[in-house]
Write a structure and sequence with these properties.
single chain, 308 residues, mainly alpha, Growth Hormone, Chain: A, 2 domains, 15 helices, 84% helix
Length: 308
C-alpha cells in the first residue's frame, strides 16, 4: 500500500506534466530521483540505522517517482518510433523494463534455492497442491499480455495523450489499492479457491472488455476492476504455498514462487507479438480466456484442489 497510494496520485500528475513539459525532461528527473533514493537506501543500510519508518518513506517516494517515469518512457517511444513499428517498440520497451526489474528477485531466488534446488523441485513436484498452485503462479505469463497494449490504446484508440494514459494507470492502481486494503482487513477465506478464481475470472473478463472497448470511460472502469483482481489472486497463492509447504523447504519453494511472479515480462513480449499477428483485441480474448480456463482446469484436476 505504501507504494500504491503515491502511484495513484503521481500517475495523474505525470500525464499533465508530460503534455506540458515533455517526456524527455520528466524522464531525466525521474532517473535522477531514483538514483538519489538508491543512494539514501544504501547509506542507511550501510550505517545500520534503517527502521520501518525509513522503509515506508522510501517506498512512498519510490512509488511516486516510478509513476512519473513509466508514462514518460511510453511518451518517448511515440516521439522516436514510426507508427507502423509502435507495437513492437512498446513490447520491447516493456520487456527490457521488466527483465531489469526481474533480475534482482530472480537472482535472489536462485541464491536461496541454490543449496538445495533439486530437493526443492522434488518437493514441489511431489505435492499435488503445491505443484498446481505453482503452475497457476507461472500462468501470470498469459495475464500480463495486456500490459503492452495500454499505451497503444491511449494513443491510437482514444487519443488521450500522456494525461489520459496516466489516468488509465491511476484507475488500475486505485482498484488494486482498494482491493489490497480489503484483503488486509478481511478474515481468512473459508474456501481459498474463491479469491483465486475470482481474481483469475475478473482479470480475464476485464482483459476482454479492455481489448474490445471503444469507450474511454468503459476502459477506465475495466482497468479499475482489473486492479481489484490482482491482490486476492497473488496473496492467496502465496498463502497456500506458505501453509502447505514443510518449514524445512519453505525458503526454496517461496523462491520459486518469487521467480514465477517475474515471468510476466515474457507475457509482455507474448502480448506484443500476438497483438501484431492477430490484433490486440483478439490477442486479449485468447490470452484472457486461456488464463481463466487454466485455473478452472487446475482446480478440477485433483480432489485436494477441489477441497481448497
Amino acid at each position: 500500500m505504501s507504494a500504491v497510494i503515491p502511484f495513484i496520485f503521481a500517475s495523474l500528475i505525470a500525464g499533465v506534466l508530460i503534455d506540458r513539459v515533455g517526456g524527455r525532461a520528466i524522464l531525466l528527473w525521474d532517473r535522477l530521483g531514483l538514483l538519489i533514493l538508491a543512494a539514501i537506501t544504501a547509506f542507511i543500510v550501510y550505517a545500520e540505522v534503517a527502521t520501518y519508518i525509513h522503509i515506508v518513506v522510501l517506498s512512498v517516494a519510490a512509488g511516486g517517482v516510478i509513476a512519473l517515469g513509466m508514462p514518460s518512457t511510453h511518451a518517448l517511444v511515440v516521439e522516436l518510433v514510426p507508427t507502423e513499428r509502435l507495437q513492437a517498440a512498446n513490447s520491447l520497451n516493456t520487456f527490457t523494463f521488466s527483465i531489469a526489474r526481474a533480475i534482482g528477485p530472480m537472482s535472489g531466488g536462485l541464491l536461496i534455492a541454490a543449496a538445495g534446488l533439486v530437493d526443492g523441485y522434488r518437493h514441489v513436484r511431489a505435492d499435488p497442491v503445491i505443484s498446481r498452485i505453482m503452475l497457476l503462479a507461472f500462468s501470470v505469463l498469459m495475464a500480463s499480455a495486456v500490459m503492452p497494449v495500454w499505451p497503444i490504446y491511449a494513443r491510437e484508440r482514444f487519443d488521450v495523450g500522456g494525461t489520459g494514459f496516466g489516468t488509465m494507470m491511476a484507475a488500475f492502481a486505485i482498484g488494486q489499492g482498494m482491493s489490497a486494503m480489503y484483503m488486509a482487513n478481511r478474515a481468512r477465506w473459508p474456501r481459498l479457491s474463491v479469491p483465486i478464481l475470482y481474481g483469475a475470472t475478473i482479470w480475464s473478463i476485464t482483459m476482454v472488455v479492455f481489448g474490445f472497448s471503444t469507450s474511454y470511460p468503459l476502459t477506465l472502469a475495466a482497468l479499475f476492476v482489473m486492479g481489484t483482481a490482482l491482490p486476492p489472486w497473488a496473496t492467496t497463492l502465496a498463502t497456500i504455498l506458505q501453509t502447505k509447504t514443510d518449514r524445512s523447504m519453505l525458503g526454496r519453494v517461496m523462491a520459486v514462487y518469487g521467480m514465477a511472479m517475474q515471468v510476466g515480462f515474457l507475457g509482455w513480449l507474448l502480448g506484443g507479438w500476438l497483438g501484431e499477428l492477430i490484433g490486440n483485441d483478439w490477442m486479449l480474448l485468447a490470452t484472457g480466456c486461456s488464463f481463466a480456463g487454466l485455473h478452472y482446469v487446475i482446480f478440477l484436476s485433483h480432489r485436494d484442489m477441489r477441497k481448497l
